């Protein structure tokens, strides 16, 4: 006895059209998605100076000289203790007085335009503590980040 061949039922034409339409529509949906906008690449501003602001700078000149072997040169009208890094990988810094009632450590980044960076900092939730100020040897500003840390900016002359 010969086996009967069973014919495969053909899908109705409307089902075929629906499948083709669905296949074609899927890529359109995928291509309709837009890629997320890229953030503009920011300039990385290097750290160029650190500073310890103290109630008694002379005491800290002696302390850090003895503790870490730093050569501190405070022979200037402001008695600001300039600290040479002592190596090619180090960052020079200083030890000076503070205008406030508390001692603090500051780190300074060099920027091309202090007003532009302060505007960006404020737009991100920071606060200007000291606006762009020419203090003689440098042009600087201080700001507070959203967590209350005070940092500095230095603008080249």
Describe the structure.
A hairpin with a 5-residue loop joins strand 7 and strand 8. The model has no long low-confidence stretch (mean pLDDT 85). The longest helix has 20 residues, at 13-32. Among the domains are: 44-104, 2,3-Dihydroxybiphenyl 1,2-Dioxygenase, domain 1 (Roll), CATH 3.10.180; 111-157, 2,3-Dihydroxybiphenyl 1,2-Dioxygenase, domain 1, CATH 3.10.180.10. It has helices spanning 13-32, 57-68, 114-123, and strands at 47-54, 72-73, 81-83, 93-97, 104-110, 127-134, 139-144, 150-155. Helix content is 27%, strand content 29%. The chain has an eight-stranded mixed sheet with strand order 2-3-4-1-5-8-7-6, with helices on one face. With 157 residues, the protein is α+β, with helices and mostly antiparallel strands. The protein has three helices and eight strands; from the N terminus they run H-E-H-E-E-E-E-H-E-E-E. The termini are far apart.
CATH class of the domain at 44-104: Alpha Beta
Helix segment tally: 3
Following the backbone from N to C, one meets helices and strands in this order, namely HEHEEEEHEEE
User: Rough shape?
Assistant: elongated
Note poorly predicted spans. none
Our estimate of the beta-strand percent is 25-35%
Biggest sheet record = 8 strands, mixed
The CATH topology of the domain at 44-104 is given as: 2,3-Dihydroxybiphenyl 1,2-Dioxygenase, domain 1
> Helices and strands: which structural class?
alpha+beta
Helix content: 25-40%
Average pLDDT works out at 85
Topology:
Layout: H1 13-32, E1 47-54, H2 57-68, E2 72-73, E3 81-83, E4 93-97, E5 104-110, H3 114-123, E6 127-134, E7 139-144, E8 150-155
Parallel strand pairs: 1-4, 5-8
Antiparallel strand pairs: 1-5, 2-3, 3-4, 6-7, 7-8
């Amino acid at each position: 006895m010969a086996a009967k061949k069973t014919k495969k039922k053909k899908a109705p034409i409307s089902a075929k059209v629906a499948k083709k339409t669905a296949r074609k529509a899927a890529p359109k949906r995928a291509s309709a998605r837009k890629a997320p906008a890229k953030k503009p690449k920011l300039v990385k501003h290097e750290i160029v100076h650190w500073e310890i602001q103290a109630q008694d700078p002379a005491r800290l000149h002696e302390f850090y000289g003895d503790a870490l072997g730093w050569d501190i040169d405070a022979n200037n009208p402001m008695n600001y203790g300039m600290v040479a890094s002592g190596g090619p990988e180090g960052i020079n810094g200083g030890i000076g007085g503070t205008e406030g009632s508390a001692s603090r450590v500051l780190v300074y980044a060099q920027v091309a335009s202090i007003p532009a960076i302060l505007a960006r900092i404020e737009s991100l939730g920071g606060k200007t503590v000291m606006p762009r100020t020419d203090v003689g040897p440098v042009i600087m500003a201080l700001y507070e980040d959203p967590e209350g840390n005070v940092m500095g900016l230095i603008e080249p002359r």
